[in-house]
Amino acid sequence: MSYDALVIDEGAIAILDTAMIEPSWFGEFELPENTVGLRRVVMDNMVYLLSEKADVSDRMLVVNTGADGIFEGAALPHARFERILRVALRHFDRNIALPVQWQPYHDGSRLSVYGEPFSKKSKVRVCFEQAAGGGRDVFAYRVTDGPKDLSQISPDMALYDRAIRHLEAAALCETPTQPRVGSFGILLSEPLGRQISGAATLEEWLEHKLNPQQLSFVNKSHDAPVRLRGAAGTGKTQAMAVKCIKDALDDLAGSNTKTFAFLTHSSALAHDVIRGMFSALDPSEKWRTSKTIDGEAKIWIGTLYELAETRLNYAQKGLRPLSLDGQEGREYQKILIEDALKHVLENPRIVLDVLSEERAFLEMLSAMDRRSAVVDDLMNEFAGALDAENIRKGTAEADRYLSGPRESWQMPLPSKAQREAVLEVHDAYRALLKRERLLSMDQMTADFGRYLTTYEWEQLKEKLGFDVIFVDEYHYFSRNEAMTLQGIFRPRAGTSGRWPLLMAFDLKQSTSDAALGGGVERFRNPGVGVTTKIDLSVNYRSTPQITKLLQDLDASFPAMDLEGEYDTHIASSQQSPGPIPILKVYNRDLELLDAVFKEAAADARRIGGRDVAVLCLNDQLFEVYLKASRINGMYTPLTTREDLKGVQYARNRCIFSMPEYVAGLQFDTVYLLHVDQSDLGDEMLSQGARRRYVNRAYLGASRAQCKLLLSTSLERGGKSEILDGPINAGSLIQQKVGA
Ligand SMILES: Nc1ncnc2c1ncn2[C@@H]1O[C@H](COP(=O)(O)OP(=O)(O)OP(=O)(O)O)[C@@H](O)[C@H]1O
């Protein structure tokens, strides 16, 4: 049966936003019999999904589901539906941002976004009319193949009017009992954030749960910046969420003038995790619906890029941001860097002149078997030095770069000639970006930073700036990103050069050099005054056995002179005991792959897929395994940080990902794949590459709550030396598998 439209009220949207929906749902739009808080009514060939207290004056989402509708011919109707729900939530609540990757394009009251993830290579865009019902409602009316001039794509307003005309009757209609039972292709589930933070409310956290260090952070006033440091699982995000809600509600009950921003590095973390945490803390949802006495929304949640997008509107200008938060973005960047490198290696001036005395370096750049390691190092040199400090070939900064001192964590480039060659590769890389009409995230940040110094923003920031800013995952922010933070405050928020920036970080979780670019000083004072430090040291996530392994792994981190900022200590675990982590040693890669997935699949069937993660430590193998038919259908892939919703769709298939894509999440059971020596065995390996590798292993292992299994294959050199410490200390048990 094909219906003409789907009509959903605001309350129902919030419930459906956390649901797991399968393609089979998009025919009848049925609800299981025992669905709490939602009902389904059919009127005049349109389906109404309404919350219990839905009323005719409520804000509505109307979706065209007819023959020319949104889901017609869609391979991934649920992906489109998720985006439609988010656009509706954004329409009702301006504090919800749309991910930059969807490329929202505004034309008057019309808006379009990409309908499916970038990785699906689909160009379909979903078009919305936001002026429906005098601006109250939102109407998802058409899809187009690629971006189109929205003024030429008109909505069928007669369909919208018909949908609204029957609303009153639908709202008053007795819900008929559902005629059949069975699977409807929809499962309403708990948001990720609520799952992580549990059901405790703000009062419970404040009265019984927070430890003294967390409490001292939460009780800090707004007259100075604070940096909250702590190893994985020590409750940084939790303490930040509690403080944000507490301070916002306190202010609401008082003068109600302050606005708050909660920034994360990944959009999915902000929207799928933080919002869920906030709802658990304040089920009355005041944090979401309240406004200041000036009519500004109380809390803005999202990423810096989303903030930049709302101010600078890139999509409208036809520019595409290249996000490096996902496997695909990084792969793409690697291709561009490799192309740039090849280009430079064909340049006689560089090869015969600049590098004439640098045979060994030239050989390293040219050697095909070292290509991927070199590209990786270059990528980090760009993120940590060149882009971080806006160094461009031919500028005064470049001169300083060519002969200035280098930090021990950087790619070793001892001579001026080597650095000159790297600058050339960077220049060629930037030219490629420009040719593709792509804007790198660093370039976006630089533009945003400049915008914040304009007269326009000087006027606007009185109104649109924030009084208090929380930054979670500060270790993922590049120097340029960190330096824009001061500019988004309201002028009145600062007292004697000190601004209420509250940031949480764990440098050991950073798997790129972007965090270190610009030196360690920015962790102390990113232009907001000197921060007060609070250290957290109790692990609330993992069992004492896993915590012990993390402590022993700590000794494998290269000693780094970061003036103490790199040190985070995990003192003890507050969880019940569990099994000692095991390292299984396989003869061959394929044996490892088959055995791990078999075990993980059995775990996932037993405890649910969203609680079991298989995390691969090696980039290239991850890519190969994603394509391997022998494990096809056994997992739910998570290949970008922006895809956390995938966790909810896991059902009884385990998650397959890399540590950096699941940062911020936790799982009952974690399988860490390929902790192999060959990734560290290369004697040419830079100190930076070594550190990034250990960081990745630590980040992956620290996602585990109860059970942690590591694996290695002899084909790739057997166990990595970083595991020697834990094995000798008895916090990791080694088992040989097979003859
Ligand atoms: N004082 C506490 N008592 C009980 N549980 C806590 C406490 N603090 C945090 N937790 C719980 O510990 C888990 C980890 O917390 P959280 O995600 O905030 O850690 P984190 O330091 O941000 O970790 P990571 O850096 O690894 O992402 C969550 O389930 C959180 O609810």
TrEMBL record:
Residue span(s) of domain UvrD-like helicase ATP-binding: 209-543
Pfam families in the record: UvrD-helicase
Membrane spanning residue stretches: none
Binding site for ATP: G230, A231, A232, G233, T234, G235, K236, T237
MF GO annotations: 3'-5' DNA helicase activity; ATP binding; DNA binding; hydrolase activity
Classification via Gene3D superfamilies: P-loop containing nucleotide triphosphate hydrolases
Any GO CC annotation of this UniProt entry: cytosol
This protein's UniProt keywords: ATP-binding, Helicase, Hydrolase, Nucleotide-binding
InterPro entries per UniProt: DNA_helicase_UvrD/REP, P-loop_NTPase, UvrD-like_ATP-bd
GO annotation, biological process: recombinational repair
PANTHER family tied to this protein: DNA 3'-5' HELICASE (PTHR11070:SF45), UVRD / RECB / PCRA DNA HELICASE FAMILY MEMBER (PTHR11070)
Record protein name field: UvrD-like helicase ATP-binding domain-containing protein
Species annotation: Sphingobium fontiphilum
